Amino acid sequence: MNAKELREKTPDQLRDQLTALKKEAFNLRFRQATNQLDNTARMNAVRKDVARIKTVLNEMAAQAAAN
C-alpha cells in the first residue's frame, strides 16, 4: 500500500484499516515470541503501513484545521 492510495480513502476507512493493522502487529509479535513466525519481514511492513496511515491522517487533520 502506498500513500497515494491512502489519500484517496476517507478518515473513517483509514482508522478501520489502522485498527486492523494494529491487531495484525499484535498477532505477529505474539507469533514471534512463540517461535511460530515464518515471514519476519511482515512485521516491518505492518509497522511501516501503520506509520503511513498515521501520517496521512495527520495531514488530513492539518489540512482541515487550515481551512
Automatic annotation (TrEMBL):
Q: Mind telling me which InterPro entries this protein's record contains? A: Ribosomal_protein_uL29, Ribosomal_uL29, Ribosomal_uL29_CS, Ribosomal_uL29_sf
Pfam families recorded: Ribosomal_L29 (PF00831)
* HAMAP family xref list: Ribosomal_uL29 (MF_00374)
Q: Which organism is it from?
A: Gemmobacter megaterium
Q: What is this protein called?
A: Large ribosomal subunit protein uL29
Please state the gene responsible for encoding this protein. Answer: rpmC
Classification via PANTHER family: 60S RIBOSOMAL PROTEIN L35/50S RIBOSOMAL PROTEIN L29, LARGE RIBOSOMAL SUBUNIT PROTEIN UL29C
Q: Give the organism's phylogenetic lineage.
A: Bacteria, Pseudomonadati, Pseudomonadota, Alphaproteobacteria, Rhodobacterales
Q: Name one GO molecular function term.
A: structural constituent of ribosome
Q: Which GO terms describe its cellular component?
A: cytosolic large ribosomal subunit
Classification via SUPFAM superfamilies:
Ribosomal protein L29 (L29p)
So what family is this one in?
Belongs to the universal ribosomal protein uL29 family.
What are the UniProt keywords, alphabetically?
Ribonucleoprotein, Ribosomal protein
Query: A Gene Ontology biological process annotation?
Result: translation
Q: Gene3D superfamilies under this entry? A: 1.10.287.310
Task: Name the domain of life this protein comes from.
Answer: Bacteria
